[in-house]
């Protein structure tokens, strides 16, 4: 089946987006690897996520101050590391919604991070679909044994979305490592969760 080419909804003059059939997908979302070239529109939406004060509060960080060109350099520097894989989250029409990544990767496990920057799509299941897509990739393609994450005590919406994807709470928090080092909250505010391959297969 050929790749699907579409024009993102709400962007009539934007370049067409080609959704590869090899990219991870689940339900309403497709995950675009950061190793693919991001359009300027995608970079701008990615950047604006981290500049938004409300999103920063939910993410336990401070609004981003650095310019776009430096943000690109920081992100691509992180992508070039061998211990992480990042994806843009695209909706049914190819519109950029946010990002999801696997980081702190070893041969058997990884940590998951996700950010839905399109606030008008919150509460519509896109985050859960993105988590399920990246879990399928982690367990079926990468053959990992466990995926863990750290969310924040006040972010109950995120915790519910993770639970819908099969994650469970664990009692002992791992030591936090920043994803992009943009100013994370204290360790005491983290809520650790994880899912194993066995949990996922039975879910």
Short description:
With 203 residues, this protein is an alpha+beta fold.
How does this model look, in words?
This protein has about 200 residues and is α+β, with helices and mostly antiparallel strands. The protein has one domain: Aminopeptidase. It has six helices and ten strands; from the N terminus they run E-E-E-E-H-H-H-E-E-E-H-E-H-E-E-H. The strands form two sheets. An eight-stranded mixed beta sheet has the order 3-4-5-6-7-8-10-9, sandwiched between helices. The chain has a two-stranded antiparallel ribbon with strand order 1-2.
Q: N- to C-terminal separation?
A: 29 Å
Low-pLDDT runs: 1-17
Individual helix count: 6
- The strand count comes to 10
Number of domain units: 1
- Say which CATH homologous superfamily is assigned: Gcn5-related N-acetyltransferase (GNAT)
Proportion of β residues?
25-35%
Which CATH architecture?
Answer: 3-Layer(aba) Sandwich
Using the coordinates above, name the CATH class: Alpha Beta
CATH topology: Aminopeptidase
The share of residues in helices is 25-40%
- Following the backbone from N to C, one meets helices and strands in this order, namely EEEEHHHEEEHEHEEH
**Order of adjacent strands in the largest pleated sheet:** 3-4-5-6-7-8-10-9
What structural category do the secondary elements indicate?
alpha+beta
Please give the radius of gyration in angstroms.
Answer: 16 Å
Describe the biggest sheet? Answer: 8 strands, mixed
- Mean model confidence by pLDDT: 81
Shape: globular
